[in-house]
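Sanity check

After download, print the first record. It should look like this:
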Amino acid sequence: MPTNTPTAADALTDVTASDGSLRRFLHGLPGVDTVGLEARAAALGTRSIKTTAKAYAIDLAISMVDLTTLEGADTPGKVRALGAKAVRPDPTDRTTPAAAAVCVYPDMVATAKEAVAGSAVKVASVATAFPAGRTALEVKLADVRDAVAAGADEIDMVIDRGAFLAGKYLKVYDEITAVREVCGTSARLKVIFETGELSTYDNIRRASWLGMLAGADFIKTSTGKVAVNATPANTLLMLEAVRDFRAQTGIQVGVKPAGGIRTTKDAIKFLVLVNETAGEDWLDNHWFRFGASSLLNDLLMQRQKLATGRYSGPDYVTVD
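Expected structure tokens:
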């Protein structure tokens, strides 16, 4: 599918014409009702689903997982094993869907591409000085070029949170558009906000619109490297943003909550949020992802329990 490259910026050209106009637009967005947002997220989290729907939801969630390893001790062997697991999460059951992607550092992209070759599994790469994003733009762009040249299908970039919190919105916008240009038509762009560092829901709403105006294909909550990552409330807020952005521009943008989603119960809560907030159009791994590697094991064990009526032993799934 085509990326959003020129269209998102063109749809609201006047908004991004200057730092002042961008500031006026972002600060003119409706304020977030904290109590209402958290109450709605909590209420949607109480929804229960029946067994047949649960089986569908588990398979859908498996297909949305970005299986991730982002450690200094990553080795080619670990990345190859992760790629094999993404392609065939349950080697004993070929009806199990593949994961959406394998997410690695740029220097591991080529290894990951080899590991998933011949499958529909994508290779995503964190770039732009992940996870802090504190380096020169030239360095960030070189990071992205290396990942794209190695074959990355998706780039997960981090925004400069310091610049955003200082109100330097046009600087953040320009960095995202520069990364978008390097990605070209070769890679989809996920923009990570690190919502746990943005302090307020109003800032999360502003960051969501800023990322989408700059051409993000996905907006993503977190790096998974800080204390507060994806929550039902911040994900609900981002889902509202992509829904409203499409209503205004005709452009659909994906959402990726990352970090802290560990159980099947958690994943189903998030799928309910998607369905009830953005709608069925987002219930597809082209538009919604989970950045949560440990989640996959629980999904696999719950899937087997539905099929056999009993939980698997501890050696049923691999330890990532």
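If your output differs, re-run the checksum step. Summary of this record's structure: The beta strands are 66-68, 101-104, 122-127, 154-158, 188-192, 218-220, 254-256.
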